[in-house]
Predict the 3D structure of the following.
Amino acid sequence: MLGPVSSKIKSVSKLKYDEKPFEHWGLTSNEVRKITEKKDHGLYDKRMTLKEAVAKFVKDGINLGVGGFVNTRVPAAIIHEIIRKGVQNLTLSFQSNSICLEWLAGAMIIAPEKVSIKRVELAWWGYELIGIAPLWRYLVTNRLVETDDYTNYGMSVRFKAGAMGIPFIPVRDHGGSDMELVNRGKMIVCPFTGQNIYLLPACNPDVGIVHTTAADMYGNARIFGALCTCPEIATASAYTIMTTDKVIPTETIRRYPNLTEIPYVCVDAVVEQPFGCYPGACYGYYWFDMDHLRMYRGICDEFRKTGNKDGLTKYFNDYIFGCETFDDFLEKTAGYKKLRYLRDMDGGQPIYTL
Amino acid sequence: MPEYSAFEMIAFTGSRQLEDRKIVFVGTGLPIIAAMHAQLTHAPNLYMIYEAGSLAPILEIGMPLSVGDTRASRKACFLKGLCAVFELTQRGFADYAFIGGAQIDMYGNISSTIEGSYYNKPDIRFPGSGGAGAMAANCGKTIAIMAMEKRRFCKQVDFITSIGYGDGSPDYREKAGVMGSGPYRIITQQALFGFDEKTRRMKLLEVRPGFTPQQIQAMIEFELIIPSKVPEMAEPTEEDLHLLRDVIDKEGYFLKRVVKK
């Protein structure tokens, strides 16, 4: 969206794109604050099942903020339950992700009456080493979703602005690229320096979903390994569902409060789900399962190339709709030996849950 | 000279561009391998940033298979999230961006978002910017790896994802509000490119032994600046190949990859 001020992008770009007036794709900073003000800010037990958490918070038409980064600490178990519950007209917000999004896209293709994605604000959707994401390519080239492109910093700092309670944030990227034309940021002249500076709108999802290393029953969470953008997403969102590999005592949290990356007030549901990122990785516990990602990617690529939904339907019937819980899914797909192998492959990354 | 593959040549050439006592913000694949090679040879005090949040890791449990791989956090000096490392970059602490892309033009503008002329319904959709757009904007200098084909080295990229010198005007990057100085090196298996200081246009720096500048020009849609003397690219030695094959990418995840069209 070209503002009254711009870089010189128009002198080099020949891109065609639809011009649209600015619109919030999630909550405004004022709206999210009002929701927060009405909440119970006491310490109370937020543990529940994944089924209960998703039924309580995930509604049609919401902006869903997805945590993790590509194949790392991705909230796979939560997405798995969201698909089984079903949700329509999702707006997805994230920096970079893989299986979570390809699962939602697969569900939209084989069961559109259950799951549909309306629009996607993102930096990157793919599998890295394993290849491009076939369903992402399918959705966009067939114009089945609306897109809004940012950089990884752009999406991350939009959540950060959301977490800070401010409506926008100035950044040093996007300007002079075609993202300046197509995304919802704006170039302005800095009132202090007189130089061009790009502004990004804050991102406040209705529901944020994150997986953490360990958390207490109130939602105070520790994250080891890269934080990705999980603390910002949890803080920016009106409601946050958190799965954690391990629930730990509050005494432990209070012993080293500096290690709390997400404070309890930002969390609405705590679900203990070991291997909750599988087939993604969780630092200190397990590496990602390349075989499973390759297998699902292959099925999706087959659909993209042939239009035949049989493989995709079978995968969903076996591994998602055919499961009552995420533990069922782990048993059917990975099994003990694979999980043991992935634990070994983590290489003993150091975490601290004492 | 020993036999080497295209990917090995690219990784080796990438390594040669990285100076010691600098920080390189790496993308997945060959940039990681190039930086690891540089650390093991001429640049022991070169450090990496991985965008999920780590600075200066020691990659002792193996080469990270992606920039988000949990291995990329091993024994880092600093481990936070994306905001932290991109803000260090915006602040000026990252010397090199090391990225890739699908298309590039004569001013080093790179596309990794779409192919096609219409954003809302492109012919091909790629993953998107990821970190590349932010790295090309705000790291000190941008190094990119590209496959040399006419449709990739083109007059007009379909979507500028990673900013180069724009239309070549001297104030393009300033008006864009970005902080880094822009494109520095473009690496292919057949040639190494830089940019002319005055015109900001792509310039042939070195060619692989066996290639002539004319052959390189013939693979590119826009006109290159070709100096009267173009030196040959250095080739990896047995020791370099040993490091690449037996120490860095032992399983051959990237160096033995089969390129799919």
Q: What stands out?
A: Chain B has a mean pLDDT of 96. Chain B is about 25% helix and 20% strand. The first helix of chain B runs from residue 6 to 17. The CA atoms of residues 64 and 72 of chain B lie 5 Å apart.
